[in-house]
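WARN no homologs supplied; continuing
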Amino acid sequence: MKRFILLIIMVLLTPFYSFADTMKNVAITAIVEHPSLNQIRDGVKDELVNSGYKLDENLTVQYKSAQGSSANAAQIARQFTTTKPDVIVAIATPSAQATAAATKHIPIVFAGITDPIAAKLSKDWQPTGTNITGVSDYQEIGPQIDFMKKIVPNVKSIGYIYSPSEINSTVVLRHLQTLLTEQGIALFAVPAQRTADISTAAASLKGKVDLIYTTTDNNVVSAYESLVKFANENKIPLLASFPDAIERGAVAAYGMSYYDVGRQSGKLVVRILKGENPGNIAPEIGQALRLVINTDAAKKQGITLTPEVIQSADKVIGNH
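OK structure emitted
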C-alpha cells in the first residue's frame, strides 16, 4: 500500500519536476536603451522563440537597462549573478565588461561589441576557453571611408564625435586617424563624455567639416536627434555605420542590421542552452552589410545624391 501511494505521488509530481528541468532562464542587460541596442535585444528574443522556446512555458527572459551608467551596469551584473540564469546576454561594451567582471562561471554572450579583444573579453577570435562568447559588430574602417567618399565625393574633412570611455568608439577613432591621414583627409575628433555634451561637441564642428560620421557610440546614439538637428540647420551631411540611423535622420548608412546581430547572438544562446560550453564557441562577427539612404535627409542637409548612388542602395527611404 505504501509503495502504491508513493507511486501515485511520483506520478502527480512528475509534470512539475519535468517543467523545472526544462525551464531556462536568460538574462539580458544593455548599457542604455536606444533603437540599435533594442533591436539586438528583440533579435535575441525572437531567435529563442524561433528555436522552439516559449515564454513563460519553458523560458523566462529578464531584461535590465543600465540607463547609460557604468555603475548601474555593474550593479545589474551582480544582481544577475545572484539569480544564476542559464545565460547572460550583455549588449554593448560597458555592460559586457561589467558582466565579465561579475562572474567567471555563468555563460555570457556579448552582443554588439565592436572590439572584444580591446575590451579584454577575448584574447583573439578563437574560442576563449572561458565562460564568454558572443557577436561583434566590428566593421573594417577602409570600406567605411570608401562609403563616405561615395556619398560626399570631394570630402576633405570629417567630423567624429565619440565618448572617450567607450572602447568601441576609441578603437574606431584610432583606425580613422591612421587611414584618413594616409588619404590626406582631415579628421576633427571631438570627445563627448555625456549625452548632454553631444550638442556642444557638434557645434564645435561648424564650418570645419564636410560631413559628420557616426558609429554606435552609445552617448551619440542616445542623443542622435540633437545631432540630426545640427546637421539639418548647418547643411552638413550626417553619415552612419548603422542602418537604424536612417530612420532617425541620417543621410546614408553602411553597416549591419542590429536586429540581425541579435538573431545571430540568439543562435549562440540556443547552443549554450542545449549544452554547449561557451568557451568552446568562437566569437563571431555580424554579417550582411547594407547601404541605406534617406533622400529627404539629403535635401535637409544640403547634399545631392547621384542617381548611381541611389540605385546602388539596398534600401531608399524618402521622396526621390
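The chain has 13 helices and 13 strands.
OK
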